[in-house]
Amino acid sequence: MIWNKTKECMSREEMRQLQGARLRKLVDRVYHNVPFYRDKLQKMGIMPDDIRTIDDIKILPFTTKQDLRDNYPFGLTAVQPTEIVRVHASSGTTGNPTVVGYTRRDLSVWQESIARCLAAYGATREDTFSVAYGYGLFTGGLGLHYGVEHFGAAVVPMSSGNTDKHIRLIRDLGITGLACTPSYALHLAEVMEKQGIPEEKIKLRIGAFGGEPWTENMRKNIESRLKLQAYNIYGLSEIMGPGVSHECECKNGSHIIEDHFFPEIIDPETCQPLPEGEQGELVFTTLTKEGMPLIRYRTKDLCSLIYSPCECGRTSVRMTRIVGRSDDMLIIRGINVFPSQVESVILQLPEFEPQYQLIVTRENNRDNLEVQVEVREEYYSDEINKLVALKNRLAHNLQSVLGISAEVKIVEPQTLQRSVGKSQRVIDKRVLD
Ligand code: DLL
């Protein structure tokens, strides 16, 4: 089923016309309402009238996460504060989180985008979706939640955690759709197998999985164990949240909601646009966003774009799976973590050296983060309970800044490996296959 045939099946030329018209309006809006963009454009000698077609996007400046941090919290907002009806936030590299404000219309575009995803997955109003993304500042929970309601299926706002109760509800309520991270889906499968729940008691048929990278092998694994069709859903809070792109029944790339989010691929080093089909960094322009519109936002996600028509009938550009990042952001249990955040927490405690290492592993489909950190010489000889208290203090501070728990391991001074060049702060032992 196609939710919005007009928008999802437009000819490429019609789409370009629409995108061009929307880009013109967007640039005019940010020029007049966002001093940050006005200054940038003026410095580059660009006036809103210079934008005529979507191709003119190439002359516009890029926006980065750093720009969001520098303008924390609402410096990039393009509307009066009273127009903002919802705020989400995700982690910044250090210090300030990235805050995003939505107008009522932004929320309605978001719902519509999720409804398009669900239709592409073959969902109907008969379905009941359990949403096991985190509810709260993370966009996964509320994003999927209102999308499912808008689509007209039923939603069970499960949120993350409490696996036993979740499995019970999947069974007792006859839940047919599951929205969560792919690693959590595998964890659910494992627990269900351990509990020995008979297959016929489980009615799951559709999975909307994203928020972290996953692979074709993981798809096969999840599909065979949970007996459902597993589909990708991609997005990022700066642009909207989940639903920027989604797979369809062909499972061959994710359709970008292109009438709202214009994609480009650039070379992360030179920032030059790359020829069609080449792999590079994904950049989005929010063509219709009111609250916090972004021009050429660098996602740091690496992938390529597929422009050929899809067999499902949608004409929108598809993106391949994310194959990596052009920065050092980690995604641990669905939460974005920057090594620099860990560093800033460590540096706040005078007992530690600025020598640390992050070790990330995945056991039973659950990510674990271990932070090894050197204690200063003068504290190392302290009694054991002082060291335990210090370890607990760091673990507590990390939890409150990162939003996930980390195992802290205090090591002797001068034991972590020093490197001559770029230090290896992260050892990611997870193998996604
Ligand atoms: O993760 C939004 C989301 C929630 C998407 C639920 C899908 C499902 P952020 O916390 O801002 O937003 O993190 C965005 O997560 O730049 C990617 O690096 C990564 N990511 C999100 N979806 C996928 C996916 C949400 N399907 C960052 N595959 C993005 C690979 C993904 N990576």
From TrEMBL:
The protein's annotated pathway: Aromatic compound metabolism; phenylacetate degradation
EC number annotated for this UniProt entry: 6.2.1.30
Keyword RNA-binding found: no
CDD domains per the UniProt record, alphabetical: PaaK (cd05913)
Similarity-based family: Belongs to the phenylacetyl-CoA ligase family.
Role played: Catalyzes the activation of phenylacetic acid (PA) to phenylacetyl-CoA (PA-CoA).
Name of the protein described by the UniProt record: Phenylacetate-coenzyme A ligase
Organism of this sequence: Candidatus Caccoplasma merdipullorum
